[in-house]
Amino acid sequence: MKFSLDWLKEHLETTVSAKEIANQLTAIGLEVEEVTNPADALAPFVVAKVLTAEKHPQADKLQVLTVDAGSGPMQVVCGAPNARAGMLGVFGPPGAYIPGSDITLKVAAIRGVESNGMMCSSRELELGDDHSGIIELPDDAPVGIPEAFDDHARLMYDLMAVAYEANVTRVVTYMKSRDASQRVYPNIGVMEPHHAMSHHGNNQEKIAGLVKVNTYHTTLFANFLERLKSTPDGDGSLLDHTLILYGSGMSESDTHSRLNVPVAIVGGGAGLLKGNRHVQAPKETPLANLMLDVANKFGCETEKFGTLSTGRLEI
Q1: Is there a single domain that holds both residue 168 and residue 197?
Q2: Within a domain: residue 211?
Q3: Are residues 86 and 206 in the same domain?
Q4: pLDDT of 18 strictly over 90
Q5: Is residue 31 part of a domain?
Q6: How far, in Å, CA of 206 to CA of 194, rounded?
Q7: Which domain range does residue 69 map to?
Q8: Arithmetic mean of pLDDT, 145-160
Q9: Considering the entire predicted model, what is its pTM?
Q10: Which distant-in-sequence residues (6+ apart) come within 8 Å of 280 by Cβ?
């Protein structure tokens, strides 16, 4: 007998992982042979755009496609009648396993023409029964990694929201800007590299640019929260049942200060904490103390978080 985690949760009120549920069922005598995540099988597949579609020189029912999955043009031989230049579809690179056909892709010559992967149908990916042609995606489906930071950041937030909504994961981490980033933000009128502005030396122009970037980053985060808030989940919203920590590793970037680091904690955490508060900790309270409290709120009974915590900063 097979059943989905979503179906089980219609009859069992729990927040633990599928693995933990399986362990408990086995412990009480209901042996669980296997826990699988269908998304794992689709991990190698990406969105690709068909740049050109030409008749195969040696086969009437085949086409030679040039596709771009975000890393440059590749040649693919395809037999789907709906394959055409300009469309977006799902591409399987060499090494990907096609579950519906039980084959692993490799670079191969098909009727004398090299093919570097495969454009896939729904049945080949076990997403449906349709095998009349390859999957056609909407025109706005993202191909590869977006070039513009704004598009990339919004896509990452969308993926996190969808992952929560579909119960694909319970934990997400997202680093929006790395240390010593030289990124510029022409879309908001900031052309000086982020890291250079962070060492502002009290230069008001640099500080103004830094404020602009921080405001922009926070606005992107706020849009993500709005999506969670507007997505129904059980007796509330995704935001009601989520706890999100947003912040940085330092407070004053010019001196790399670790004191009084501002942190926003957002979401209801399924009733784990009360919102609309400003909690000010004593000076030099380790950020690890906050992490320790969050860990305990989620059932991790521990007295230390790393090596720096000195106690719980209760929120």
Answers
A1: yes
A2: yes
A3: no
A4: no
A5: yes
A6: 10
A7: 44-119
A8: 88
A9: 0.63
A10: none
Q: Give me 163's structure tokens.
A: 């992952």
d(CA 226, CA 239): 8
Residue 310 maps to a domain: no
Enclosing H/E stretch for 169: none
The DSSP bridge partners found for residue 76 are 65
Q: What is the pLDDT of residue 201?
A: 94
201 vs 194: CA distance, rounded Å: 14
Instruction: State the DSSP code for 269.
Output: G
In the block, residue with structure tokens 């929120």: 315
Contact present, 128 and 150 (Cβ < 8 Å): no
Provide the pLDDT confidence category of residue 263 given band limits of 50, 70 and 90.
very high
**How many structural domains does the chain have?**
3
Which three-class secondary structure string do you get for 177-243? CCCCCCCCEHHHCECCCHHHHHCCCCCHHHHHHHHHHHHHHHHHHHHHHHHHHCCEECCEECCCCCC
**Residue 113 is assigned to a structural domain of this protein:** yes
Model confidence over 187-224: pLDDT tens digits?
999 999 999 999 999 999 999 999 999 999 999 999 99
Whether the CB-CB separation of 75 and 115 falls below 8 Å is answered with yes
pLDDT at 232 over 80: yes
CB hemisphere CA count around 92 (13 angstroms) = 25
Arithmetic mean of pLDDT, 175-179 = 84
